[in-house]
């Protein structure tokens, strides 16, 4: 057996070390990872991906932890990926991991891993998507992707999920109007966490008012689910809401078209990152970019010709 297929076999069997090694390869955009994912792809398509996003400290990690526990009770295997685009070392996410690990120690049915920003090309959304495929192949039926923040990176990351949870808490800046419009659009379910705090009712009213302005997508009106993650309250209801959304997606509208749309987006992202990688490969490529930028800044070259030259250099034009 070739090493790569041996590696794939191990992953299909859920071998933790093989999975960890694959995630590192994915993070480094190594060609091994691509070979591996090609072999694994036929074994994917079974996992359900739930993305969890929201401002820092809203309780995402606690929610993920408790939701994972709900799934484990049903004997569903779970994969958790915590992505922190804000920190190169993923301090917050790793800390969250340690907390989570305590509750699930010794449970081989759950796999938890953090990822942080790598490389100047970003590519974090792509790495996350690849890790999700890997966990899918490894037999995790529920894959939970936690990402902190409210920026474009996070939107890109959660967009790959089948179901997106947006977490809000009472009293955070108080004004829901401050919430990024983008988040409002991507949320399939709104989680009102820390519902034990003052202002939960008011926030729920505001949320409903705001959601009533948004026209339903494929007949789905995002529900608001109240939770107190630390006390394990509302988690069964949250799991039920996710299940309901899943059923709705499977039965409403043109399911095939939605899957094709999804892969069209993924292919576009892959194409984009591949092209960038080709053009700006390694230190040399970065030096070329810097030199081109310098030439344009000094008005020695126009930006259009500079881009043409970069493309020519990469043999993609
Ligand atoms: N009162 C209350 N506190 C909560 C609740 N859920 C989480 N917390 C607390 O809120 C703090 C932040 O929780 P995390 O789960 O780490 O939040 P997070 O959104 O993952 O944080 P980052 O990953 O750093 O953005 C912790 O101290 C939790 O114990 C809740 O429902 N009620
Ligand atoms: Mg967290």
Name some characteristics of this structure.
317 residues; alpha/beta; 7-stranded parallel sheet; 13 helices; 7 strands; 13% strand; globular; binds guanosine-5'-triphosphate; binds magnesium ion
Radius of gyration (CA) equals 21 Å
Ions, cofactors, ligands: which are bound? guanosine-5'-triphosphate, magnesium ion
Number of strands: 7
Q: Which descriptor suits the 3D outline? A: globular
Spans where pLDDT lies below 50 across 5 or more residues: none
Give the CA-CA distance, first to last residue. 39 Å
The strands making up the biggest β-sheet line up spatially as 3-2-4-1-5-6-7
Order of helices and strands: HHHEHEHEHEHEHEHEHHHH
Strand content: 5-15%
Overall mean pLDDT stands at 85
Major sheet characteristics? 7 strands, parallel
Number of helices: 13
**What is the SS-derived class?**
alpha/beta
Q: Roughly what percent helix?
A: 40-55%
Write the layout of secondary structure elements.
Layout lengths: L2 H10 L3 H12 L3 H10 L7 E7 L5 H14 L4 E7 L6 H14 L5 E7 L7 H14 L4 E7 L3 H8 L3 E6 L12 H6 L2 E4 L7 H12 L12 E3 L8 H17 L3 H25 L2 H16 L5 H11 L4
Parallel strand pairs: 1-4, 1-5, 2-3, 2-4, 5-6, 6-7
Helix pairs in contact: 1-3, 2-3, 2-6, 4-5, 4-10, 6-7, 12-13
Bound molecules: guanosine-5'-triphosphate and magnesium ion.
